[in-house]
Amino acid sequence: MESDVRNVSAALDLISEHWQPHRLTSINDYDVKVVKLQGEFVWHTHPDTDELFLVRSGRLTIQLRDRDVELGPDDVFVVPAGVEHCPRADEEVSALLFEPKGTVNTGDAGGDRTADLQEL
Questions:
Q1: What is the pTM of this model?
Q2: Residue 64 and residue 83 in contact, taking contact as beta carbons nearer than 8 Å
């Protein structure tokens, strides 16, 4: 069991690449990931799990097929399981993601933006 204190801001300072989530810690069967985002990601779904976005800084748009969801600092949004979405950050965003262990960032889309989860 992990018992070390982790600092979110310090962890985000270590990240230099966009769209490459890093595991900050885990709780039960979930990973808490830190990530920096910029530009448009890929349209994808996570068929078996919800995905929680918590924006720390910047403005993030979660594009859904029927609407856009705009998030600013300290905003939280949950993309329900199976809902196709495409995150977009016109300027750099720092965020936390809460997902079950083993969740792939590109979901069912795969491709060259699929990240190997890195540890901090």
A1: 0.87
A2: yes
